[in-house]
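One thing: mind reviewing this one?
=====
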Amino acid sequence: MSGSERRNQIVQLLKESTKPLSGGYLAKTFKVSRQVIVQDIALLRANGEHIVSTNLGYILYKSREVSRVFKVHHSEEEVREELCLIVDRGGIVKDVFVYHRVYGTVRAEMNIRSREDVRLFQEKIASGKSSLLMNVTSGYHYHTVLAEDEYTLDLIQEKLAERGFLAKLQDYEPIDFWSSEPAGQS
């Protein structure tokens, strides 16, 4: 077994475990020394895994973050208002994407967490020759929004609806925006 395969299996074990897994247990499981496990954990952390060491062993930190996709429609002049509405209520705008009948789903990461991020985003758009992704689909677009809990997402959804930014899904749009399967085809 390669080191990469072992590290992938360590992550899988940590995900499935309901209790901390000791370095000794992992070393015995993979027939390597505890020092190799310590090095594997360090590499996994360096690659973004949130592994926490406790006195009882290693645990994989599970974020309590929840997400929801919102389909929205508005003008270019309303972009700031839309983004601020989300971040002011505790949301993080993870991405923006459009569903194009020919190209499929076209997505861009945003990671907008604050009004300052909104300002910087608008500066970048204004200073370049590129336009907003929503312009490809006449203002219709989607955002994956992250939050600490469902209540926050419900509040954001309510405010987007009150402002008239929420848009209705069409029959040709995919139910699962991460795949390209159209609605009614699942």
